[in-house]
Amino acid sequence: MKGKIIVITAPSGAGKTSITRYLLQKYDQLAFSISAATRLPRGKEKNGVDYYFMTVEEFQERIHRNEFMEWEMVYEGKYYGTLKTEMERLWSQGKAVILDIDVKGAIHIQKQYPENTISLFIEPPSIDELRNRLEGRGVDDEETIKTRLNKASYELSFKHSFDRVITNHNLETACKEAEEIIIEFLNK
Description:
Order of helices and strands: EHEEEHEEHEHEHHEH
CATH architecture: 3-Layer(aba) Sandwich
Oligomer: single chain
Radius of gyration: 16 Å
Distance between the termini: 9 Å
Shape: globular
């Protein structure tokens, strides 16, 4: 189990976080890698639980100290990344680590750790459905939703870079499909 990485990536609103939560609730041998982020918490998000929230300056200092496995400026001035110490902490517990990260970060992890990584790309049924999901969250303004949809169109062009693609028409079905893939990977 030690050293295994499960990368789950998708455009914002496609369902990657819901699928990740489903897998974590079902399997004790999985652990969630908490990403670092420079954005403010949304809703009930908590530092050290959902993300390690930090300032842009702190994030950039950590980049210069080579403390990230991967990092990306996902939106202008908004950095996200995976801390090496977080991965080492979870591996030391004998866990397979789930990364719920953006497309570029996911590609980077796959290239660095090809032997012990499986990557899942969660795709929305359509851009219109993605818009409905983002609007339904009620956390983003229209300009943010427009930015996310533009980015989603770009990210969808990379879906064939991943080991498996799951189209999330129905969350329960998508969760079961992801579960089957992950069980097979863990039993290798």
